[in-house]
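Need tokens for this chain, all 113 residues.
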Amino acid sequence: MVETASGGVMPMRCYWSERAFQGVAALVAFAGLAAFLFPDSGRGVSLAVTGAGLLMILIPLWLVPTCAMAGMPCNLSFKPGALLAGGITVMAGLVGVLQLRRLDAAGVERRVG
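Here are the structure tokens for all 113 residues:
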């Protein structure tokens, strides 16, 4: 929070960046739950997780960027953590898509349940 000239407080950009990131992370958690409950939706859920991971990367860089002060905690901890979490999420989604594609090409029947 930053104090304004009138004495009020107002959230900084990093606050909104973190809130947006939390929303996308909740989407990824929901996608994981959907993949668990509906195994036949694996490829679509994996694609959605890949897109959500890209959003995780874009939020602190471009969509809701953190402040320009390099020494602030948002740039020292939140931004690198968001990029790492987004990268891992993208990789997990792509691995899921490629693995399901490989299984479908091999003719392996997937078990439900």
